[in-house]
Write a structure and sequence with these properties.
The protein is of the alpha/beta class. It is about 40% helix and about 15% strand. The protein has 15 helices and 18 strands. It has a 7-stranded mixed β-sheet, sandwiched between helices. Strands 5-4-3-6-7-17 form a 6-stranded mixed β-sheet, with helices on both faces. Strands 1-2-18 form a 3-stranded antiparallel β-sheet. The longest helix has 22 residues. The chain binds 1,4-dihydronicotinamide adenine dinucleotide.
């Protein structure tokens, strides 16, 4: 049902009507029809269509990026990177589509077996609001490369750009229905996860929702990939290249207004360099340009919603109550331009005097808030870094190559960045340990999560007369 009429708002991007059972059934049915056709095509044929889609995205990069800024609130420079990563994802998996193959296994007496890598069927993608277009590509590209269809549900807060992707796939020549977008929130997502026509659900979002997705998917034994939240540690040793470590800490905390699942928000700094680190990090954080995300030199745009901004500011207040010290930021920010008044901006925040038991150190804030803590030894910091139910990412800054690899080995996280942070090219697998989820996105391994192996056993001789004794 359309929502009741309300006065038009000049800032509205679209009206979103959530899909109900009928639309979800239709989307899955048409995706299934498209899958029957698409999965019979050769990998090279699928690759050609995907490369054409990648080309169109590249050609329209600036327009899509602009729309993504309006969709999400992130800065235009970041949005362009998201769109570049998106077409690269399509190119990468187009390259793999033509290489999908099985094995040949020799058996006694000339008999043999072979394996076929087959598609799963209709896959569902459920996206978060922080990387709307990129998440749709991270999920659909490997799915389509393997011969699947996808029904994608974007977050209701960022409903628009996934539709652009659907239009581009169609223009590039995928069969009608191969990539369908359904709109809506939890109810629509529930319909998708409970649907018997769905073979797999790939989800990006919060841990509580991820658990529900798993539970619903279990009823019909759907495969599941979960990309959930994090509270990742970033460990900075005193022998680091300080300039890089400071830049890395900013990269680990303030991209997309801090709304990044793999952010390194627990920053452990070796005690000897703490004063100089804090001085530099605060100086740079204060200098971050906040404001109109469509301007070239803006580096921090608006948070996703008023409620989310209030939630993030609430974390800062709670941190103060628990004894943390705000070194900078942590307040609602009103840009000078009149048109931006009422936007959900906040100044990026650095918290000192933090301890491991504080709420700001334990819980995912999903906003521009960095918690800094001192440490003395490698053994101690590893213990503290791993003392969390999350395990998405981690980082270490040091000039000592042995220490870097030793720390990477001992951190319980799906990714460890050495001497940088938040670098996620498509060639590199991405995903979590512990409650940050399972399965992987990107890299060759993701093919495993969007395909299944069939074994074909071929007898070249006679069948044993086993029962005639
Ligand atoms: N790991 C990550 O990348 C992300 C983590 N988050 C975390 O989650 C918090 C809440 O953000 P939300 O957008 O509300 O995350 P969420 O986990 O509630 O929503 C993510 C997606 O799941 C859908 N969804 C919600 N409930 C569902 C259900 N019962 N069944 C099926 N689909 C459902 C939503 O419509 C959206 O498309 C954030 O404050 C942040 O801490 C949010 C976005 C991304």
């Amino acid at each position: 049902c359309p929502p009741p009429p309300r006065p038009p708002c000049p800032l509205d991007l679209c009206d979103m009507f959530p899909c109900g059972k009928e639309e979800v059934d239709q989307a899955i049915q048409s995706a299934h029809t498209a899958y029957l056709k698409w999965s019979k095509m050769a990998g090279m044929e699928r690759a050609r269509v995907m490369l054409e889609a990648a080309r169109i995205i590249r050609e329209r990069r600036d327009n899509i990026a602009k729309l993504e800024v309006i969709n999400n609130g992130k800065s235009i420079t970041e949005a362009r990177v998201d769109i570049d990563v998106s077409w690269q994802t399509l190119e990468y998996y187009a390259g793999i589509a033509g290489t999908l193959a099985g094995e040949h296994i020799q058996l006694p007496g000339g008999s043999f077996a072979y394996t076929r890598r087959e598609a799963l069927g209709v896959c569902v993608g459920i996206g978060a609001w922080n990387y709307p277009f990129q998440i749709a590509c991270w999920k659909s590209a490997p799915a389509l490369a393997c011969g699947n269809a996808m029904v994608f549900k974007p977050s209701p807060f960022t409903a628009v750009t996934a539709v652009i992707l659907a239009e581009i796939y169609k223009e590039a020549g995928v069969p009608d229905g191969l990539f369908n977008v359904v709109q809506g929130g939890a109810e629509t997502g529930t319909l998708l996860c409970n649907h018997p026509g769905v073979a797999k659900v790939s989800f990006t979002g919060s841990v509580p929702t991820g658990k529900k997705i798993m539970e619903m998917s279990a009823k019909t034994v759907k495969q599941v990939t979960l990309e959930l939240g994090g509270k990742s540690p970033l460990i900075i040793f005193k022998d680091c290249e300080l300039e890089n470590a400071v830049r890395g800490a900013l990269m680990a905390n303030f991209l997309t207004q801090g709304e990044v699942c793999c952010n390194g928000t627990r920053v452990y700094v070796q005690r000897e360099i703490m004063p100089v680190f804090l001085e530099e990090v605060v100086k740079r954080t204060k200098a971050i340009r906040i404001g109109d995300p469509l301007l070239e030199n803006t580096r921090m745009g608006a948070l996703i919603t008023r409620q989310h901004l209030d939630k993030v500011l609430g974390f800062v207040s709670q941190a103060k109550k628990e004894g943390a010290m705000v070194l900078c930021g942590g307040e609602a920010f009103t840009p000078i331009e009149p048109k931006l008044k009422g936007g959900y901006y906040m100044s990026p925040c650095v918290l000192d005097n933090c301890t491991d038991d504080m709420t700001c150190v334990k819980e995912e804030i999903f906003g521009p808030v960095m918690s800094v803590m001192p440490f003395d030894t490698e053994e101690e910091v590893l213990k503290r870094a791993n003392n969390t139910t999350f395990g998405l990412a981690s980082g270490v800054f040091t000039r000592d190559i042995s220490r870097a690899h030793r720390v990477a080995e001992n951190l319980q996280a799906g990714t460890c960045f050495i001497n940088n942070y938040n670098i996620s090219p498509v060639e590199v697998p991405f995903g979590g340990y512990k409650q940050s989820g399972f399965g992987r996105e990107n890299g060759q391994v993701t093919i495993e999560y969007y395909s299944q192996l069939k074994t074909v056993v071929v007898e070249m001789g006679d069948v044993d007369d086993y029962f005639n004794c």
